[in-house]
Amino acid sequence: MRLGAIADDVTGACDLAGRVAEAGLPTTVLLPAPPAPGHPSPTTEHHEDVFAGGDDASACAVVALKVRTAPVGQAVDEATAAAQLLLDAGASLLYQKYCSTFDSTPAGNIGPIADALVALAGADGTVGTPATPGARRTQYEGILFADGVPLAESPMRDHPLTPMRDSSVVRLLAAQTAAPVSLVPWEAVQRGAAEVASAIGAGHTLVDALTEGDLDVIAAAILSAPRPVVAAGGAGVGTALARAAVAASGQRVDISRSQLPEVPVTGRLLLAGSASAATRAQTAAFAGERHTLDPLALATDDRALDRLRDALAARADHREPVLIGSAPEVARAQAELGAERAAALIEGALAELAAFAVHELGYSHLLVAGGETSGAVTARLGVQRLLVGQQVAPGVPWAVARSGEREIALLLKSGNFGGPGLFTDAWEVAP
Ligand SMILES: Nc1ncnc2c1ncn2[C@@H]1O[C@H](COP(=O)(O)OP(=O)(O)O)[C@@H](O)[C@H]1O
Ligand SMILES: O=C(O)[C@@H](O)C(=O)COP(=O)(O)O
Fold this sequence. Notes:
Blueprint: E1 2-7, H1 10-22, E2 27-30, E3 59-64, H2 72-88, E4 93-97, H3 110-121, E5 125-129, E6 137-140, E7 143-146, E8 149-150, H4 169-174, E9 181-184, H5 186-190, H6 193-198, E10 203-207, H7 212-223, E11 229-233, H8 235-249, E12 268-272, H9 277-285, E13 289-293, H10 295-300, H11 304-313, E14 322-326, H12 331-337, H13 339-359, E15 365-369, H14 371-381, E16 385-393, E17 396-403, E18 406-413, H15 422-425
Parallel strand pairs: 1-3, 1-4, 2-3, 4-11, 5-10, 5-11, 9-10, 12-14, 12-15, 13-14, 15-18
Antiparallel strand pairs: 2-16, 6-7, 7-8, 16-17, 17-18
Helix pairs in contact: 1-8, 2-3, 7-8, 11-13, 12-13, 13-14
The structure holds adenosine-5'-diphosphate and the ligand O=C(O)[C@@H](O)C(=O)COP(=O)(O)O.
The site of the ligand O=C(O)[C@@H](O)C(=O)COP(=O)(O)O has 17 residues, from helix 1.
Protein name: 3-oxo-tetronate kinase
GO molecular function: kinase activity
Domain Four-carbon acid sugar kinase N-terminal: 3-241
């Protein structure tokens, strides 16, 4: 199987890639250059580089986009271009990777992207679930649970860009697409893949899942579906598909042995743009030097960013990790600037500080918290491919990339993932 995944944000791509690689499937992560005005992303033109391994080897290629909160038209254009690249490179199954907490708005972009991929693939519809039990995301009777509570009662209800105020993924998706949205309940999953496959219809099929075993049933149903489908979901479904491919081929790559190239430590920088509870806890637990980015200051003081550059440049030892995080107070900045402008100010500042650290100060290791944030940073650094290594936490792998002439190590962390000590512990296993 050649699994071609289109991820709506960069940390989601890394989450999927880390878990799929650990399942034993050779995995590549591609980041298209930012789209030129009026044109979808010119994804990489080297098709032979898309999938690792020989033509008949099972593999996974993930195209990491930054379209989760982009205008719908741009999201559809970029996802379609990425899917076409994957199909041209031999993808046998497309996979729409979206967030395990279904991060989206009533406008999209999960639904519009799903519709576009179905049309491109000539499929009947999508099949999958956001459920990712390894990240404590489960779905029962169409209700999505995050860390054991319904989505709309979790901290995701206060996400700065995609506040999730309904826990029903059926209702959330139905608001984003004109295609039929159907649910396969957990009891049907317990009766096996054939029953799930028989329940797959036109449009978008969301399947309940509480365990990894349920995901394996869903993967088997997708692979045995009577008509072409597009797989879709959080990282859980993709990882189950990878398990199935490894079991079928008998070929398993041991990620723990495929060491990433060593990157000499010349500077360590933490950039936390996520406002999630997990990232706030990691920030609070970090004992090193820290600086705070306030979008209101960025909007009114044109020296604010220069002062942060000066602070970085003045550091005595760049190898000691330093944290630059967004201000905890979100509501006031959004009230005064609007959510989009406040977000863009922070993302832009963190991206500029990343470029300054890497290319002016020679920093080698960056830990970035947040999907939108990671998309802004990798685009500004011109990163187009990630070599993914071992995970420091489920769904959080170190990677090595090129930025210009520099080889750097990146940990692009989903906002919700990782324990409180991650900002300190992650450096111990860095490439
Ligand atoms: N204090 C703040 N005010 C306004 N927006 C903020 C603030 N802090 C973070 N943000 C924005 O919230 C968004 C968080 O999204 P993201 O980086 O994807 O994190 P997550 O992985 O938690 O979803 C980013 O666009 C970031 O710039
Ligand atoms: O599925 C998930 O939860 C992650 O892979 C994911 O999508 C992370 O997105 P961010 O929360 O924006 O980091």
